[in-house]
Amino acid sequence: MTRRNIPSLVGAIVFGGVLGPLLLMMGLTRTPASSASLLLNLEGVFTALLAWFVFRENFDRRIALGILSIVAGGLALSWGGRLSWGGLAGPVAVTGACFCWGIDNNLTQKVSASDPVQIAMLKGLAAGSVNTAIAFLLGASLPAAPRVAAALAVGFFSYGVSLVFFVLALRRLERPRTGAYFSTAPFVGAVLSLAIFESGRPRYSSPPER
Length: 210
Fold this sequence. Notes:
Layout: H1 6-28, H2 33-39, H3 42-53, H4 61-78, H5 89-110, H6 116-137, H7 145-172, H8 175-182, H9 185-199
Helix pairs in contact: 1-5, 1-6, 2-9, 3-4, 3-5, 3-8, 6-7
């Protein structure tokens, strides 16, 4: 990591590691997990739009068509079904998180030539410390040890390992193309949320016949 890359890394940490997770948590408290997962498709859209119009990256019509198809698929899955948006505040917060992560992705691409493990370590330590401090300032208490262990395991794979692979992809692919590939993740999240939360609901059973 060179001194020239530090401003981009700091910006990526602020937008992607602090503001993005805060907005997502605010959105998840007001929006079902399945709906929020579909809204996360907007991260790839914002990543591509910022890359094209702000960072002047090459425009590829195939990538644009792919991103539009992903957004249309998310809208189709959430339209008129059993999903509920839980008001306007939740979706707006999730959308804001996606915009922050779009900025984060473009800034991370600027430092992607550096060691991806070092990038993930710095972003994780800074973002984790700040968000933990904010949680305690807002009155949160430390959960039980099993929950902490589960959170650490999820964070290791979903944030640490995922971020290393993402930085490697940014190094070898253009930002819009990487964002388009990354946009498949929300569909997996939507399917898992439906499977997990639907399976926990009590099923209706008809009364016995007399």
